[in-house]
Amino acid sequence: MKAAYIEKTGGPEVIKVDNIREAAPGQGEVRIRVHAVSVNPIDTYIRSGAIESGIQGRYILGCDASGIIESVGDGVQDYKVGDRVWCTNQGLQGRQGTFAELICIDEAWCYPLPDQVTFQAAAACALVGMTAHLGLFREARLQAGETILCIGGTGGVGSMVVQMAKASGARVLATAGSEEKHRRLLELGADVAINYKQSSIENSVLESAPKGVNVFWETRREPNFDQAVELLKPRGRMVLMAGRDARPIFPVGPFYVKECSLHGFVMFKATALEMKTAAEEINRWMASGKLQPNISLELPISDVAAAHRQQEAATLRSEGSLAGKIVLTFTQENQASQVAASPGNEGYES
């Protein structure tokens, strides 16, 4: 089977796209023939060596995938051959990734894919959708009628936050840095779109929400705590999901006097049950059209190195035109390719 993998960390040039031996599903696992995957910033961090994958030797890239179940292992209860599915939280904590024609994953990390939803849409919404849902509802406990400010509302996670908050009945304010992205925020459902290059975020928010916001969602690599405390209502909640190396000054006094709370989290540490609960609602919203993928670029799997370069340019240097997710697809020709060796039960060949 064809797969995109690394055998050492480094720049995008270390990525190989080649045939490797396919794996057979083990106890409780399903084997998925992959149709689409998506690129996430964390993929580039693992490839570069900034984050450890937990795997020695050959590591298959990728967290997200969508496709069709081709076979099931012993003990699988919820899925059968032919089911359309999607998954995320792979390629992390010692699990192999998803950038392969065939992947074997525990059924606990697998979710049914509604017939109305394309493979590309599911892959694009997977990790970012899970992140948004966990942050909004497990952490911030956003309620209908509350007001949320999302910094960077057209990004991968931000676009999910805007749509999910709106779908749950909240009033949504969001920021973007260009006229094109400003228009995109309105298309995503934001009640108030703020172009921070043309107007002050603080002034714009307080004009629209004079008493402040209930939830402040921060996506920047350098969190702005002074800004958040100023704009939060009493007992407001701030959500952090970025800024791994940031060490900003924190306004302790104003924060605790206002009785605010701070919620930092990473999606890949959620339990299988927490993610299954989120997936059920994500599926309902995708099927109804309330949650749309924010796909900026679609490429064949052979262009994975170029995709990593574009993702890094956007994430690390705020360069390029990327304004959403990169989706990679396996062509029909690739799907038909086979490895002569029998798959056996040896797992991914190393």
Looking at this protein, list some descriptive labels:
350 residues, alpha/beta, Quinone Oxidoreductase, Chain A, domain 1, 25% strand, 10 helices, 7-stranded mixed beta sheet, Rossmann fold
**Rounded mean pLDDT score:** 92
What is the helix content? Answer: 25-40%
Strand content is: 15-25%
Please report the first level of CATH classification, the CATH class of the largest domain.
Alpha Beta
Under CATH, the topology of the largest domain can be stated as Quinone Oxidoreductase, Chain A, domain 1
- Secondary structure class reads alpha/beta
Distance between the termini: 14 Å
Instruction: Please give the radius of gyration in angstroms.
Output: 20 Å
| Unreliable residue runs | 332-350
Shape, per Cα inertia axes = globular
The total tally of domains equals 2
Q: CATH superfamily assignment of the largest domain?
A: Medium-chain alcohol dehydrogenases, catalytic domain
Total of DSSP H or I helical runs spanning 4+ residues: 10
CATH structural architecture of the largest domain: Alpha-Beta Complex
Number of strands: 16
The largest sheet, given as strand count, sense and whether it forms a barrel, is: 7 strands, mixed
Order of helices and strands: EEEHEEEEEHEHEHEHEHEHEHEHEH
